[in-house]
Design goal:
Layout: E1 8-9, E2 16-25, E3 29-35, E4 42-44, H1 50-53, H2 65-82, E5 89-93, H3 99-107, E6 110-114, E7 135-139, H4 148-158, E8 162-165, E9 191-192, H5 195-203, E10 208-211, E11 216-220, H6 226-234, H7 239-243, H8 251-259
Parallel strand pairs: 5-6, 5-7, 7-8
Antiparallel strand pairs: 1-2, 2-3, 3-4, 4-9, 8-11, 10-11
Helix pairs in contact: 2-3, 2-6
Length: about 260
């Protein structure tokens, strides 16, 4: 199936985007890619193939899912410490199977799960049911969003701080065969960010962007020490040791909580 696009508005800033190339997704769709000259966002045409792409919510090629969640959990610990509230509440949006929430609760973080498209397998009983939090986490999801700005507003309605991961696309823009993150085998990645794209998303909401310039990003209105930010991302394996005395694992308390009859 081929759909040809001539003009397309940027899904981040609404300015007109320029066509880059046409390439194959899922070995059967010819898809146009566009780049916004204003904010730098790179996007596919309107993603009519998503029902096919999400036949399975977690794609089979995601072999790094467990290792990535272990790193993400440690980064969350560090960010909560930077924000001055390790005992605050975290909501993991696009939480997948619940891996991250379970890891965070094992460390002692009051974390809850949320995902519209995936079954919660590992954090049952800790689904987010509304209210506010200190931090929203959104790992490996922004590149999936049809409307990133709308989704960001939804997260900021929950918490004033949003920590997320997505790979920054290079300049000049690579061809489809030159960058693995296009995700041609699963077709779920439909938008790609540059630092200036993320800076704009933060700025128009009165926030600031803290980023390592590669894959981890924090949108916040709090002052954050850039040196400590870089260190916590790079040396995340040390963070649990520094916070060990400030946190108490919820493994056993959650166990007993789950033994109680549910209403």
């Amino acid at each position: 199936m081929t759909v040809t696009c001539v003009n397309l508005s940027c899904r981040c800033c609404a300015e007109e985007s320029n066509k880059l190339f046409t390439a194959s997704l899922l070995n059967r769709y010819q898809v146009d890619y566009f780049e916004c000259p204003t904010c730098g966002y790179v996007q596919t045409e309107d993603p009519y193939w998503l029902d096919d792409a999400y036949a399975d919510a977690i794609n089979d090629s995601d072999t790094g899912i467990l290792a990535r969640n272990q790193i993400n959990a440690r980064v969350v610990l560090g960010v909560m410490a930077l924000l001055g509230n390790v005992n605050g509440t975290v909501v993991d949006c696009a939480g997948g199977y619940g891996i991250l929430v379970r890891l965070l609760r094992d460390y002692g973080i009051n974390a809850f799960w949320s995902d519209q498209f995936c079954q919660n397998l590992l954090a049952k009983g800790f689904e987010f049911s509304g209210g506010s939090a200190n931090l929203v986490t959104v790992f490996e999801a922004f590149e999936h969003f049809v409307d990133p700005d709308i989704e960001l507003d939804r997260f900021l309605d929950i918490a004033p701080n949003v920590l997320f991961s997505t790979e920054i696309i290079a300049t000049p823009t690579p061809d489809q065969h030159e960058w693995w993150y296009y995700g041609v085998e699963h077709g779920q990645h439909i938008g790609f960010f540059r630092t200036k794209t993320l800076e704009r998303l933060a700025r128009v909401r009165g926030k600031r962007l803290i980023t390592n310039g590669k894959n981890y990003h924090l949108i916040t209105d709090q002052p954050v020490n850039q040196t400590l930010w870089y260190l916590l991302v790079k040396l995340n394996f040390l963070i649990p040791f520094f916070l060990k005395k400030k946190l108490k694992s919820k493994v056993w308390s959650d166990h007993f909580l789950m033994l109680k009859p549910r209403k």
